[in-house]
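G., the chain you wanted modeled:
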Amino acid sequence: MRRFYTCSAVTHPPRPSPDAISVTLLPDSADADPAVLALRIRELAAEFGFQRCGISGIELGEDEGHLRDWLEKGLYGSMEWMARHGEKRSRPAELVPGTLRVVSVGLDYGRRDDAEAWQTLGDGERAYVARYALGRDYHKLMRQRLQRLADRVAELVGPFGHRVFVDSAPVLERALARNAGLGWIGKHTCLIDRDGGSWFFLGEIYLDLPLPVDEPATSHCGTCSRCMDVCPTQAITAPHRLDARRCISYLTIENDGPIPLEFREPIGNRIFGCDDCQLVCPWNKFAKRSDEPDFRARNNLDEASLADLFAWTEAEFLERTEGSAIRRSGYRRWLRNIAVALGNAPTTAEVLSALESRQDIDDDLVREHVTWALQRHRERGN
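Predicted structure as tokens:
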């Protein structure tokens, strides 16, 4: 998952522009100047396709307090892994002993298709899939690039202690990225870069090199509350506070049981995740974006109809979602989510036929959602 940690953004002096710093070639020595090494790491990150890179320390005391409060209130729903690792999430040196610094990187995935996204959301017979899940799963791609980056650093300075992370361990990635100057944590809890908006993935390298740190990003949300106002289920209960139990991303991906009745209609046609809070963010309107070919839509998922996707057999689901983040939700959640969306769709022959084809399915979870959806259409006809 990409969203379920919240904290407040802080204000710091602006980060100096990298263009104002002269770059010196790094000597082939383990005793190289840390400042020169830091500049070389940023150059290498760009060479490996990352649009942003920064370095932070490991102090996350204030963020640890926010995390503890969020967990104590049970806002993580059934995601027990959020609470399982205790304070290791906010104490990098306890997760990876010897860690002194964290290199944070950002990789763009959002194309300029906001208008098309809204069109899909407005067409009740089409399926909406969160933009990050339309193409290849980012985890493996980013992890490979980060490891290559770490290997290149080792070639320059010799063996050093490090560990690469991409959603693979208890890491406060947004707080670390904010402290590294990659962006501020918006009221919707996503990281926002002034020039790149919020359509990017995060990854980290924990390392034991005493590199100079970057200036943390400053907050620029101001009085804007569009992300809070647009949320279909009102999951953003306060600035920087997300109740995962109400979030469509959680309900359609992480939640393994029935979708609560109160949220089924607001889900609309969103069958895997939700982007509304990012689609309305003013900082995304003029953001510079890089089109990563691996993240382009597969299987026509940006245009597919609900009925067509509902007809997939489990074998087709596994084949067509190979290498995709969608695979992790599993086939039964896939059908459950589409059944809800079909219940919200216009009452057409195609929609009714799709639902009726699954009304006797040998799966209690899916069958209950299909029954609910068919009942919705019957009620509309009365």
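The CA atoms of residues 253 and 329 lie 5 Å apart.

Shout if anything looks off.
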